[in-house]
Amino acid sequence: MAAPALADAPAAARAADTTPVNQTPPVNQTHSRLIYFSSASENTSRFIGKLGADAARIPLHTKDEPLVACEPFVLVVPTYGGTGGEGSVPKQVIRFLNNPDNRRLLRGVIGAGNTNFGDNYCMAGDIIAAKCKVPHLYKFELMGTPEDVSRVQKGLEEFWTRLSQTQK
Ligand SMILES: Cc1cc2nc3c(=O)[nH]c(=O)nc-3n(C[C@H](O)[C@H](O)[C@H](O)COP(=O)(O)O)c2cc1C
Predict the structure, then answer these.
(1) Is residue 11 situated within a structural domain?
(2) Angle between helices 43-51 and 146-166 (to 10 degrees)
(3) What is the pLDDT of residues 69-127, one digit of tens each?
(4) Average pLDDT value over all residues in the chain
(5) From the CA of 106, how far away is ligand 1's center (Å)?
(6) What is the domain range of residue 158?
């Protein structure tokens, strides 16, 4: 028996036929040297705003286009720990770092947190630094003080200069 003509195929099958074979899901590519995560409380986002540097934000929601780094970058990450520090790295940041291209371009981490959490202060930065073998460059509380802002501005400038001299 002859195969049914396309016009006879169920509507869903016909729709599938028109989908490009090699279509990749959309991503948000960034050339920023500073990439950060901030939850709905926006503390880290405020700190980043005060730096006055170009920065890209890791999306909060899974439905948002994932962020993909195109240049070496420093990650700024707040800690969200449970008991005993588990779950300290926000799941959005884990998802971002699960992309091997993003991990390969990570050069350092800056941790944000709250000293009320004692030994778990900025633990997400410690965990990422250890796992990805990059330096934990700085820690700051909540949205940072003016001193944190100027130290991070100066520190990042020196960090990138040093890196450009050593990584030819
Ligand atoms: C549920 C919860 C757990 C937290 N756990 C930690 C922690 O383990 N260590 C730490 O240093 N800060 C902890 N913090 C503080 C946050 O890291 C801090 O408020 C940070 O500025 C949040 O940044 P964001 O507003 O940009 O998301 C926690 C905050 C919340 C709400």
Answers:
(1) no
(2) 70
(3) 999 999 999 999 977 767 899 999 999 999 999 999 999 999 999 999 999 999 999 99
(4) 89
(5) 22
(6) 28-166
Domain count, the chain: 1
- Does residue 159 form part of some domain? yes
Asked if residue 3 belongs to a domain, the reply is: no
Domain CATH for 142: 3.40.50.360
Q: What are phi and psi of 52, to 5 degrees?
A: 65, 25
**121: CA distance to ligand 1 center in Å?**
9
Q: What is this structure's pTM?
A: 0.87
pLDDT band for position 168 (cuts 50, 70, 90): low
CA of 159 to the centre of ligand 1 (A): 26
Q: Give yes or no for a contact between 89 and 101, defined as CB atoms under 8 angstroms apart.
A: no
Cβ–ligand 1 contact at 41 (below 6 Å)? yes
- Say how many residues make up the chain: 168
